[in-house]
Amino acid sequence: MRGSHTIDHWDPEDTRAWEAGGSAIARRNLLWSVVAEHVGFSVWSLWSVMVLFMPTEVYGISTGDKFLIGAVATLTGALLRFPYTMATTRFGGRNWTVFSAVVLLIPVSATIILLANPGQPLWMYLVCAALTGFGGGNFASSMTNINAFYPQRLKGWALGLNAGGGNLGVPAVQLLGLLVLAWAGDTEPYWVCAFYLVALVIAGIGAAVYMDNLDGPGVDTAAMRSALKNRHTWTISLLYIGTFGSFIGFSFAFAQVLAIDFRAGGQSAADAALHAASIAFIGPLLGSISRVYGGKLADRFGGSNVTLSVFVGMIGAAAILIAGSGSLVTMSVAFVLLFILSGMGNGSVYKIIPSVFDAASRSLPLDAAGRAAYSRSMSGAVIGIAGALGGLGGVGINLVLRQAYQSGDGGSPAWAFIVFAAFYAVAALVTWRAYVAVPATAAPANESAPVSGTMTS
To answer: How far apart are CA 270 and CA 259, in angstroms?
Structure first.
């Protein structure tokens, strides 16, 4: 340790050091990373709940505008993952976690002011939603930081737990919104925001007291440039668009889709919002939990094999959506299934990343320390890039649904579901071609099977 919160010469692959106290340090940093990322995800998803408190006749915001608000929040959260990926190397994991929690006090406070004063122009809601995107950037810095703390054999579990705990911030804010809707109606959303003002302060203080900075090789601009030239970065990003893009896109859109269907059935706006909120949180909740198990399954069976199975399942779930369009029960079940599968895919895709570059490092003329540094920096860079591009899938989902509901065929989302199914089919084909269909003789043990045959960049 140097100073009170900086660790020199961290080597998680040193088994003796790991068992002598390294694992306890890693767990402590993982715990508070999960807390901060969890709250960040909740703030990022805040407007998926706030739109339920915004009757069109009061705020002048249309259904299409609400999908646009979700798309803007998703977009900024995705784009901010690029700089956030390098932030922990530049400023330290502990320091950046504290900053990234505190800065979110700004959009949460702005949300309170906007909702307390209905009738503002649309651009003000869009700016506020964009600021909540800083919470989406937290994912990249958190995942890059935790990737550096854990050994290769535990990365699937650690990254899955870190990401899954963060993803739980989505159903958490939606469940809190449901409780406020049931208790106070759609006129007092401030309780949701007030809770997160307190939660952000707790997360910032906890990170400051209990987390550490790692002094050593990490993700910098050189690593990012190298990653951008590596074809695995783009292949993995495509897969992550299908998994995480689906998770975050549906997280923003699911409640709106349900509310529209409830209102089409004759319910008032207030009742439709309440009933939609009572169902919407279930999908993100199960998707967040399944991410952890997706990582564990990937540790055992290989990230590529689990990912291929996930996309096949998502094609089937999308087919159910297409066939059951118009049936609220069928659509709800299919959406929940998509959440579960996309969550598992999030964990399995991120297992592929360190496996790819660990395998690649073995062919380099470097010593053990050099190979570990290469694997760590490249994995961290690709985690950030894939996380950013994956988030753009959520933007696409909200825009496609927005267009579907505004189209001239009566506002049916069926053709949007066809677009989703087609993308999952492409992603399944890419997974099979790039990471599964390799000669068995070229495959090292476990995950490396889909990696070894495709190592050149």
So the answer is: 9
pLDDT in tens, 214-232: 886 666 677 778 888 888 9
pLDDT in tens, 361-400: 887 877 777 887 788 778 878 877 888 898 889 899 989 9
pLDDT tens digits, one per residue of 277-297 = 888 889 999 998 898 888 888
| DSSP 8-state symbol, 433 | I
pTM: 0.78
CA 279/CA 259 separation, integer angstroms = 10
- Phi, then psi, of 134 in degrees rounded to 5: -60, -30
Alpha-carbon distance of 236 to 198, in angstroms, equals 37
What pLDDT is recorded for position 306?
Answer: 93
The CA distance from 436 to 144, in Å, is 26
Task: Give the separation between CA 221 and CA 265, rounded to whole angstroms.
Answer: 53
Residue 185 confidence class, pLDDT cut points 50, 70, 90:
low
Residue 324 phi/psi, 5-degree rounding, is: -100, 15
- Residue 249 tokens, joined: 């896109």
For the beta carbon of residue 222, count every other beta carbon within 10 angstroms: 10
For residues 421 and 318, the answer to whether their CB atoms sit within 8 Å is yes
Distance of CA 81 to the CA centre of its chain: 10
Q: Compute the Cα dihedral for 39, 219, 457, 450 and give only its sign.
A: negative
Of the candidates 104, 108, 94, the residue with the CA atom closest to the CA atom of residue 141: 94
Pairwise CA distance, residues 152 & 142, whole Å: 17
Domains of the chain, earliest start first = 6-452 (1.20.1250.20)
Packing angle of the helix pair 23-44, 134-149 (nearest 10 deg)? 170
What mean pLDDT comes out for the span 167-172?
89
